[in-house]
Fold this sequence. Notes:
The complex is a heterodimer. Chain A is of the alpha/beta class. Chain A has one domain (43-208, 268-447): Alkaline Phosphatase, subunit A (3-Layer(aba) Sandwich), CATH 3.40.720.10. Helix content of chain A is 35%, strand content 16%. Chain A has helices spanning 5-10, 14-31, 67-71, 106-110, 128-137, 147-155, 216-237, 240-263, 270-276, 284-298, 317-341, 407-417, and strands at residues 47-53, 83-84, 91-94, 99-102, 115-122, 165-168, 192-194, 303-308, 348-353, 357-358, 361-362, 370-371, 375-381, 388-390, 392-393, 400-402, 405-406, 427-429, 432-434. Chain A is globular, with a radius of gyration of 24 Å. Chain A starts with a helix and ends in a 15-residue tail after the last strand. Chain B is mainly alpha-helical. Chain B folds into four domains: 5-118 and 222-275, no CATH class; 139-215; 283-360, no CATH class; 372-567, no CATH class. Chain B is built from 22 helices and eight strands. In chain B, the strands form four sheets. Chain B has a two-stranded antiparallel sheet with strand order 1-4. In chain B, helix 6 (128-171) packs antiparallel against helix 7, helix 9 packs across helix 10 (317-329) and helix 14 runs parallel beside helix 19. The radius of gyration of chain B is 30 Å and the shape is globular. The two termini of chain B are 28 Å apart. The relative contact order of chain B is 0.09. Residues 108-113, 409-418 and 529-538 of chain B have low confidence and may be disordered. The interface between A and B is large, with 86 and 86 residues.
Amino acid sequence: MKPSRRQLLQSASAGFGHVAFAGLAAADAAKNPLAPKAGHFQAKASRVIFLCMRGGPSHMETFDPKPRLNADHGKPGKTPHCKLLGSRWPFKKSGQSGIEVVELLPETARLADKLCVLRGMHTDNENHPQALEQLHTGSFQFVRPSLGSWVLYGLGNENQNLPGFVSINPLTALGGRRYYQSAFLPAACSATLMGDAQRPSANASIGNLASPRLTGRAQREQLDLMQSMNRDFAAKTADPRVEGLIQSYELAFRMQDELPHVLDVRQESKETLALYGIANPSSGTFAQQCLLARRLVEAGVRFVEISHLEWDLHGSLNSGMVRNCAQIDRPVAALLIDLERRGLLDETLVIWGGEFGRTPEDPTQDGRGHNNKGYCMWLAGGGVRGGHVHGATDDHGYEAVEGKVHTHDLHATILHLLGLDHERLTYRHGGRDYRLTDVHGTVVKEIIA
Amino acid sequence: MDVPYDQFLREQVAGDLLPASDPRQADRQRIATGFLAMGPKAFEESKPDVFRMDVIDEQIEVIGRSILGLSIGCARCHDHKFDPIPTRDYYAIAGILGGTETLYGHGTRGIKATAFHNTALQPVGPDAPRLAKAGQDYLDTLQALTLKQNTARSDRYRVVRWLSDAKVQLGKPGADAAKLQPEIERLNALIGEWDIKVKAAETELSNWQDHAPEMPGWAMASRDKPAPVNCRIHVRGEVTNLGEEVPRGVLRVLPNPAGRISPSSSGRLELAGWLAGAKNPLTARVYVNRVWQHLFGQGLVTTPDDFGVNGSRPSHPQLLDYLALRFIGHGWSTKKLVRELVTSRTYQLSSQPVPASLAADSENTLAWRMSPRRVDAESLRDAILVVSGRLNPARPSSEILAAVHPYRHGEFTTFKPQFGQELYDSPHRGVYLPVIRGLPPEMFQLFDFPSAERPTSRRDESTVPAQALFFMNSPWVISESRRATAGLLSNPTRDDATRVNQLFERAFSRKPTPDEVKQALAYLSGPADTAFTGPGHVSKAEADARPERWTSLVQAILGSAEFRTLR
């Protein structure tokens, strides 16, 4: 006997549907892709802040001193018509570890003992879009999930009132959205984007976070009406997803309350605001992002990325380095200090670096080209060895020669620190299991504390 | 129009090579081959061979997944790990596509590294033979002049930056003014020279644009290269590591009644015939499964892109075979297939749960009821416009993109991020909205619109708070709710109960229950945000508040689970 569709739609009996539904809702909760879950083994870190230096910062002007390059300044480089270009700024041995840091970064240098500098980084592509895509997803040929999406997929989110993967002022044009998307992973693993790199704002926020017309009380009343209809509907259809929908409205309602507080840096003490240099006109926007990153991870967000855009110094190297270093130095140092004094640094992995480094030579003598064969990044907190240098480039800084770490190795290591085995964190799609590291990647054990 | 699916496939893959009885048909078939040309391109790629093989790979991947339900692309670097597809077969197909010229046009305007790109497009339209040559020459010069102008601008800008650096240096304590001052003067003079060059380049370009010839229509398309060639195996997929040459051909594991490809043919026509042949055991099955999925929410095979070893087994294998054979027997008619499915008993089942069935098969794999499912992004947008009364169901009279963003021939600009949002203003259905890669409208992004960079066989059905925030707070949802309210309140002789009925019928295609009417009326009479002065007394505040209260009700209906679910 065929049940009449219309009849049944109209005379829904809540009874049996509700009973069956209760069991299904429990099963669905287990399917919530953002529910917190254990990794493959004991984690050293539980959260990530990625300070993405877009454009490719020069390694020989930040954390990889090249005395031989300075000595050979002006001699012919490897490329025709290019002369070797020494760094104009001296490096200082810093901290007990004596890590050499350029004098343009005095505040960061003070924290040298927290840093684990990777001087042997290398990656596959020397163009910005591809290298950035590989830095974020492991692949520059295909659309793949972002590192943050993989982490969220592997571990879920600690705070169910907040998004799990946030990117502040991301570059969204020119394919930039692909750097933050979940691709074939559950859509809930995509980044929540705050603001836009093309209009970088200290007040970057999330869309539709406040009602433009209703008070909280009036909105609650409206939501109560909708949720009452939703509960009727759930009972009527035994569709377990409706319960997820009901919960998502409650989460959104709570987010409206919680997220603006998390994003409201005015709640910070004067001392903290000064520590980051929020009031400084040149570094203010980046400082604000660093402070937001701390506030977000503190509130339980799993993965936060912030960006500094201007490292592609083909020309104006001298003025550009002075400007960029001044913009990031104090905020980055403040972030590390602030995380530590709040007891968060041990479990927060901070990553600094760009898609590649620079060449030691240039025809203009005030700029450097792209260099994907050798460059540096640093990690701090989250179970890495502080005050440690791993790897090296050759005497001029052309190529990584020791302790080489490929982007895939970096990804494998980041996952490892978070308690995830990069070979076991897989997702079945289009007939095969996919990994962040594809068939590559070796965990760099030497840098783990 | 119900183009038979086998004919559709032949046209998509080799329409340019099919006979045509008139120029219109020829154009239509040529335009169909845009299928091969429209994939994403890595224009930043600097190595021509890599670019070429990536284009071919994208074509093979899309053909494999969408038509055959096979991941042939896996065999680019090694024999397929699971399915019987050796690397050799991959490069046999790569040879066919390698003999094809893909006409994808200029890409983003003014990108420098395009020296090796073929920027031609396919001229179409009644006057194409007459206009094509002059039109293509015009476009080529336009591209060259654009590049020249952009290069001049960026060279000038470099000097401007040098100058500003020098000025900064000069402003610093202890600056060497004796050295810097002449440098600043020199740079100023240099900028003057560049100003002239930039101006000249701009004028040249603008003059050229003023003399645009009459243009044919232009389409992305495919056509054969002058001579067919075989492809060599790329060991581990590397362009620098070439192995043996493979004759052009198709997958050897599947039947191929047509046999070998003649030495004088690119093989694309044969490829199309093989894909669309009745003897191909996959094509019809893959297609009917997709149609089934579209109508029922999940396919008989739940991995529509993978009918290989790793794909899921069909839930009803005989049914799948029956439908595939009927489909071929009915001349590959999609219309007949759909009619057969929607008039079936299974399709007409209620979505109402039956406890025993629910306990036995909670996922509804055996199709004992209609599975309730989420309304997709485009339909959700359309449904909101239906409730607000703004939807125009007609096909737009011209391309929506052209209306919002007028562009001239050959001018493909990088779209501005805010651009996508303007498309909301179109009252036309979501299927008519253009899809701009990497830049879907906000609402589509939020509601699982798939990435336009790769084939997607099943959309996600995510439930995230950002969607809830959209319904609660988005200015667009609020304005559509206000519009619906205005419509509901426009007839002063109706009472509120009638209006609630009207709203439910429009939003849910059903009448409200008495309890629902009561609940809605209670909500409407509730205290507004503004002061409420009591029964029997309609104050100005109350009069103003009434439409707002209605707006809140409409908004709650639009955000409700019932509105967002198809059942």
